[in-house]
Amino acid sequence: MSEKDPSLNAAYDLQSPDDNRRLYADWAETYDSGFAVDHDYRLHLMTARAFRDAGGQGPVLDVGAGTGLAGAVLSELGMAPIDATDISGEMLDVAERKDVYRDLFVADLLEGLPVPRDSYAGIVSSGTFTHGHLGPDALDELLRVARTGAQFAISINAEHFTAKGFAAKLDALGDAITNLALPDTRIYGPNATDEHKDDMAFIALFQKG
Questions:
Q1: Which domains does the chain possess?
Q2: Separation of alpha carbons 57 and 19, rounded Å
Q3: Residue 34 pLDDT level (bands cut at 50, 70, 90)
Q4: Sign for the pseudo-dihedral over CA of 68, 202, 17, 20
Q5: Residues 6 or more apart from 22 whose CB is under 8 A from it?
Q6: Which of 51, 66, 149, 159 would bridge with 153, disulfide CB 3.0–4.6 Å?
């Protein structure tokens, strides 16, 4: 994807579930080679490594898995089994080819996940809580499907961490989460040249209480 390709800017302008579905249906086949490579995207690497370093283990749910960038890193780090969920079936079709997931399913977090309570020992999400339709209340559904003590690693765009209510939500969760840490990281590597090249994210690390 060249810098003139509108997909990256369109991703920053997403507002609704249908916006997400339309964009990622068109973007799925070129996402890895175009976006991730051309823009030196690193957030999935940093999120997966933070999960590992915090003691994360499987079974893991990769939330907003997209084409499986984070899942592939988690697999390389020895995490298993890993399941994937995303709002875009087209993105998951690409993710499935990486052969790192036990199960993949299409779902909108705002409508709930087709997963029983207490299913996962780890929850990882990279690049999902950015500028789209998902706000901090979606964390409630992730806590539902996580086991007590489950390790979370959730990247949250730094620009929207306070403005969109993520800071307040994490504070309001109180004893529902423990061991909260918020390391920050660059989203893109040194080879990025786009207007978003200096964007930052927090990686919310915590455990379900």
A1: 7-208 (3.40.50.150)
A2: 33
A3: low
A4: negative
A5: none
A6: 51
